[in-house]
Write a structure and sequence with these properties.
The chain is an alpha/beta fold and 145 residues long. It contains five helices and four strands. It has one domain: Rossmann fold. It has helices at residues 17-29, 47-55, 70-75, 84-89, 114-139; strands at residues 5-11, 33-39, 78-81, 98-101. The longest helix is centred in the C-terminal third of the chain and has 26 residues, at 114-139. The protein is globular.
Length: 145
C-alpha cells in the first residue's frame, strides 16, 4: 500500500476553520489520509472551535496552530484554502498539488450573545463537515475512476 495522501487546510490564522477541517479529516478519513492545517499567520487555537468540535466527538485540542512554511506546503498532495484571505495570499503552489477553495465565513468575527456566537461556530462547523465529507469522497476515489 502506498503512503496516504496529505491534505493541507490553509486559512488566515489557523485558529478555527482550518483546525475544524483538519479534525474532521482525521476523524472521518482515518489512516487513509494525513491531515495538516496551517495559517498565513498562527493566531493560536480558538476555544470556541475546540468546544463545538467536542460537541461532535472530535477532539482538536491537541492540534497545533501553525504558520505555513515551504516545507509544510511541499508535504501536501491536496491544498484546501478555507477563506479568501488565504486563497489570495497563498504562496505559489508546487505543480501536482490538487487545489480547492472553500470561502467559509470566519466564526471568530461573529458578534452578539454567547449563544449567537456559538451558533455561528456550529454553522461553520457543520459546513466544514459537509465539505470534508465531499472532499474525502473525491480525493479517495481509486485512480482511473
Amino acid at each position: 500500500m502506498s503512503d496516504p495522501r496529505t491534505v493541507l487546510f490553509l486559512c488566515t490564522g489557523n485558529s478555527c476553520r482550518s483546525q475544524m477541517a483538519e479534525g474532521y479529516t482525521r476523524a472521518l478519513g482515518g489512516d487513509r489520509l494525513t491531515a495538516l492545517s496551517a495559517g498565513i499567520e498562527a493566531h493560536g487555537k480558538n476555544p470556541r472551535a475546540i468546544a463545538v468540535m467536542a460537541e461532535e466527538g472530535v477532539d482538536i485540542s491537541g492540534q497545533e496552530s501553525t504558520q505555513l512554511t515551504d516545507e509544510l506546503l511541499a508535504q501536501a498532495d491536496v491544498l484546501v484554502t478555507v477563506c479568501g484571505h488565504a486563497d489570495e495570499h497563498c504562496p505559489v503552489v508546487p505543480g501536482g498539488i490538487e487545489r480547492y477553495h472553500w470561502p467559509l465565513p470566519d466564526p471568530a468575527k461573529a458578534r452578539g450573545t454567547e449563544e449567537e456566537i456559538m451558533g455561528e461556530f456550529r454553522a461553520v462547523r457543520d459546513e466544514v463537515r459537509r465539505r470534508v465529507t465531499e472532499l474525502l469522497q473525491e480525493v479517495m476515489k481509486p485512480c482511473g475512476n
